User: What shape does this take?
Amino acid sequence: GDSVTQMEGPVTLSEEAFLTINCTYTATGYPSLFWYVQYPGEGLQLLLKATKADDKGSNKGFEATYRKETTSFHLEKGSVQVSDSAVYFCALTLNNDMRFGAGTRLTVKP
Amino acid sequence: GAGVSQTPSNKVTEKGKYVELRCDPISGHTALYWYRQSLGQGPEFLIYFQGTGAADDSGLPNDRFFAVRPEGSVSTLKIQRTERGDSAVYLCASSTRVNEQFFGPGTRLTVL
Assistant: This one.
């Protein structure tokens, strides 16, 4: 079935380091792809999305490009901040439900 | 306007009891989703409503789980004869389009 696999955490980085969290998907059709973020004590928030191949989603300095040829949607940020510490979830939707990865916990140290 | 709200925020119950979890979606959102998130995992789809009807309930784990949305707005997830394995955070989301789901803060259910 349709599924998402994302890089296992936890990931610990120093402030201003470069971030990559890998995400690959398996789908029978052409899904929409998402990154959600869950800050400590808060609910899931949409970070960015892409709805078709080669689309790039971006928000708050984060970017991800929908790569159909590699079935990937890796999350990147050039310079992380302490406030980026959170759990990041890759997700896809094809029909009515959303399929999530297991989440990657990011901790950014000053 | 207000986001998706869920009540209660925490629920502790004993094994075998019945529980109801409530979701108030964003006003005007026709689609409503329930997910379950176990510790260290991503949310897992349970059921999807379009208006008053359950359009897809394929994620409900067994017949102890049931959800309703009688007026096409508020939804209630009902769990009968709770088991310890039901302990999780239950998330609700609403949307006007599949590509934009807005999540509530969740209800943390603990079954003792």
User: Anything to note?
Assistant: Chain A has a mean pLDDT of 94. The interface with chain B takes residues 4, 32, 36, 42-46, 49, 51, 89, 91, 93, 95-103 of chain A (CB under 8 Å). Chain A is about 0% helix and 50% strand. The CA atoms of residues 77 and 102 of chain A lie 20 Å apart.
